């Protein structure tokens, strides 16, 4: 049996990919949930440090959960988020996820008290920071490395595409090389490394998107969040789409694309998300009229129908 196959088939569930949720539960021996908070940061791609206007698809309100309210203190956001997740899902331990905007975009002396406020709750086991690859430096990484000796620390470097032509087109304000440099500087510090990738840019070919799996498999990533391209209100992409609609994936096509992608992804990378989501009132397209659970089941059914799994078609880097 191939090494990749044996790894996936160790899972007790019928899931055919390495789920980050399963991993957390196995690692900590209980139900671990992420509590999203708003740390009160801005984004260098909006405030003029790198650019203004931001990424053309970005509306932070479209991915801000109820608990993340910058008008409240971090301690209050954590306490309220934990109370909600305990009641709703029976969650036992928590990772505080600094989610909206760029959560390392401030001097270290500003960051530390905010991170410490999050870690202060007795049931918080770790910290997860959503940020940009051009927004970390040695002092921040060294501090996080120290915290990672006793807590679970993850850094999520937004990337969205490995192609510089796409990064320019979506106004990311950094290159793929910048992401690789950040990965190289962060690796081997005990910090878990994640990234976000969007599938479905209409100008990227299917083979280009699948090749992203080959490339990302070889950068020491610990986990990955996949998002389908969707258009949300109050973004530059919405303006472009409404002026001249472009093709967006139907759910069945996207499910096949994700399965193709995951087949080529190293089985050593845990998958935290298989698709994006946005509140109904924010979403312009594509509208699949399904709950998140239903979308996940459509994708998981594809793995079953196709009798395939993560890493089945990994391209050797030798
Ligand atoms: S997606 Fe992230 S980096 Fe881009 S504008 Fe929004 S907050 Fe900034």
Q: Roughly how many Å is the radius of gyration?
A: 19 Å
Please trace the helix and strand order, writing H or E for each element: HHEHEHEHEHHEHEEHHEEH
What global shape is seen? globular
Number of strands: 9
Structural class designation: alpha/beta
Kindly report the spatial arrangement of strands forming the biggest sheet.
Answer: 1-2-3-4-5-6-8
Share of residues in strands: 15-25%
- Please state the average pLDDT score: 93
Q: Ends: how far apart? A: 20 Å
State the helix count.
Answer: 11
Helix content: 25-40%
Q: Mind describing the biggest β-sheet?
A: 7 strands, parallel
Describe this structure in words.
- The chain has 318 residues and is of the alpha/beta class.
- It has helices spanning 3-9, 20-28, 74-89, 108-119, 138-147, 164-169, 176-186, 206-216, 236-243, 251-263, 292-305; strands at residues 32-37, 93-98, 124-131, 152-160, 192-199, 223-228, 231-232, 270-273, 283-285.
- The strands form 2 sheets. The chain has a 7-stranded parallel beta sheet with strand order 1-2-3-4-5-6-8, sandwiched between helices. A two-stranded antiparallel ribbon has the order 7-9.
- Strand 5 (192-199), helix 8 and strand 6 (223-228) form a beta-alpha-beta unit.
- Helix 8 packs parallel to helix 10 and helix 10 (251-263) packs across helix 11 (292-305).
- The radius of gyration is 19 Å and the shape is globular.
- The protein starts with a helix and ends in a 13-residue tail after the last helix.
């Amino acid at each position: 049996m191939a090494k990749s196959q044996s790894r996936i088939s160790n899972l007790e569930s019928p899931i055919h990919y390495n789920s980050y949720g399963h991993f957390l539960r196995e690692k900590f021996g209980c139900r671990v949930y992420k509590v999203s908070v708003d740390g009160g940061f801005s984004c260098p791609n909006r405030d003029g440090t790198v650019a203004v206007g931001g990424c053309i698809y970005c509306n932070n309100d479209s991915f801000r959960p109820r608990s993340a309210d910058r008008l409240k203190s971090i301690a209050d956001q954590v306490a309220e988020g934990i109370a909600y997740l305990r009641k709703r899902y029976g969650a036992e331990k928590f990772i505080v996820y600094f989610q909206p905007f760029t959560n390392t975009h401030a001097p270290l002396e500003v960051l530390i008290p905010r991170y410490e406020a999050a870690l202060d709750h007795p049931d918080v086991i770790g910290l997860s920071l959503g940020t940009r690859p051009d927004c970390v430096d040695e002092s921040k990484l060294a501090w996080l490395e120290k915290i990672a000796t006793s807590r679970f620390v993850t850094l999520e470097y937004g990337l969205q595409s490995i192609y510089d032509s796409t990064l320019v087109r979506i106004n990311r304000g950094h290159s793929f090389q910048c992401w690789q440099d950040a990965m190289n500087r962060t690796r081997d510090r005990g910090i878990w490394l994640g990234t976000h990738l969007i599938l479905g840019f209409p100008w990227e070919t299917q083979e280009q998107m699948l090749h992203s799996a080959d490339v990302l498999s070889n950068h020491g990533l610990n986990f990955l969040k996949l998002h389908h391209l969707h258009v949300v209100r109050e973004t530059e992409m919405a303006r472009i789409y409404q002026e001249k609609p472009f093709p967006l994936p139907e759910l069945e096509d996207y499910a096949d694309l994700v399965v193709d992608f995951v087949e080529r992804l190293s089985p050593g990378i845990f998958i935290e998300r298989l698709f994006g989501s946005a509140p109904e009132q924010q979403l312009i397209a594509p509208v699949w009229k399904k709950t998140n659970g239903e979308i996940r089941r459509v994708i998981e059914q594809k793995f079953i129908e196709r009798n395939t799994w993560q890493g089945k078609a990994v391209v050797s880097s030798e």
